[in-house]
Amino acid sequence: MQFDPHQLTALTAVLSRGSFDAAASDLGVTPSAISQRIKALEDRVGGALVLRGSPCTGTPAGTRLVKHAEDVALLEAHVSRELALENTTGPARLKIAVNADSLATWLIRALSEVEDVLFDLVIDDQDHSAQWLRRGEVSMAITAHEKPAAGCDAWPLGALRYIPTASLAFKKRWFQEQVDPASLARAPCLTFDAKDMLQRRWIDQMFSVHLSPPVHYLPSTQAFIDAARLGLGWGMNPEQLVTAHLETETLVPLIADAPLDVPLSLQVSRIMAPTLAPLIRAVRSAAAEELVQI
Q: Which residue segment(s) compose the domain that 77 sits in?
């Protein structure tokens, strides 16, 4: 089945901008024209593609079609560069699933080395980011899973090292004698969201016990550090982001020399891998320098 490129462009604009009016403004047409194109596309596929609201969001079929349109744009841009043709359509868009801590520590450097691509980053836990690939909603993912998703290639990147950190006052209050399962079961810990298992994984690694300590949910890498520094709780923070705090003792490790290394892999849709080769090289190069090689 072939799709009308104007209809796909309209759908992409609506879902990226969140409204028919904004999409119309971007494309230089009327909102009525956008609505007609979306309706024609929905008639063609036999189902709804846009959930009308503030903002407008995509149905699973709509999200999949947008991803298809973005992949086609990337492929066309790649061919244009190979044939030395002038690319008049502007930069292509690439959707990537990535964990927040990779984004905050090492990935941006790799993205900055690639030209003519607009990045659309989806933040999800490294244990779950590969699901975006399996659903066909992204073309690339930074994930903890070594086994590639169906139709994907995978490359090991190294491990992101985490240090269990807290303020000195917090450690003295909650771990007066020692850090052990009993004290860890009482002390509040920081957790990114319900998917974040890093704190529990570290406890299991150190003591071979499964605990459910009191939890603060803080879905922000920087807030994690600030909360630990200000004594709200203890949490697993990326080593790159807390080295200076550890040197000044505004943060201290719960236990010295007891990191948690989380292996990461790069997974890419196989059909898109040749087109994304420059970005793949940049990601692997940045990871080789910034991550722990295990």
A: 1-85
- Taking the CA atoms of the chain, what radius of gyration do you get in angstroms? 22
Question: 168-182 burial, b for 16+ CB within 10 Å, e for fewer?
Answer: eebbeebbeeebeee
What burial class does residue 199 get, using C-beta atoms within 10 Å of its C-beta: 0-12 exposed, 13-18 middle, 19+ buried?
buried
> Does residue 130 belong to any structural domain of this protein?
no
pLDDT at 83: 42
Model confidence, pTM: 0.75
Give the CATH number, domain containing residue 181: 3.40.190.10
pLDDT digits (tens, 9 = 90+) for 125-169: 999 999 998 888 888 999 999 999 888 999 999 999 999 999 999
* CA 159 – CA 288 distance, rounded (Å): 10
Angle at 69 (CA atoms; ends 73, 104), nearest 5 degrees = 80
Residue 237: strand pairing partners: 163
User: Side chain identity at 173, as an amino acid letter?
Assistant: R
Contact 236, 205 (CB under 8 A): no
- The pLDDT, as a whole number, for residue 73 is 73
